[in-house]
Every structure is written in structure tokens, then in C-alpha cells.
Amino acid sequence: MALAAMLAIDEDALICDMAQVYHVTDIRALPVKTLAVLACGLPADARIRAALRESSAARAENNDTGEIQGFDGGEDFDAALRAFEEGGT
Q1: Which residues of the chain carry a pLDDT beneath 50?
Q2: Among 7, 23, 42, 70, which is most buried by a count of CB atoms within 10 Å?
């Protein structure tokens, strides 16, 4: 999950950090598990860590919990979408 978040937020920052810290220039050449372990081992001052902190702060500022909402069907989704568009939650 952490690796997916890193890739979604700023893949370029992750690539730079991997090159700087581990001298890995092609992250796609690594097995996913190895990449995840190395990515989670990046230091606190890594670019991707800063990007994750900024993203987390932005979500908090917008009252976004990051939780995923499920729906029982298309009608429930459409109703929720209409409520959101009208300013509801």
C-alpha cells in the first residue's frame, strides 16, 4: 500500500530517491516486493517522504479522510454523486 501511494503521489520523486540512496535507476527492473521494501526504507528527508507529508496535510486541510466509500449499485452511486455535486457529503 505504501509503494502504491508513493507511485501515485510522485513517481519521479521516488525514482530520484531510489537512484540517490540505492543507486537503482530502473525501478521497474526490481521485483515489486524488493521495490516496496527499499521504498519503505528511504530516509525521512527523502523527496517522496516530503511529498507524502504534503499530500497528507492537503487531505487533512480538505477534511478528506482518504477512506473509500462503497455502493450497493449504480443507483446508490448516482444518488451520492448528485448529493456531492449539490454540496452535500
Answers
A1: none
A2: 42
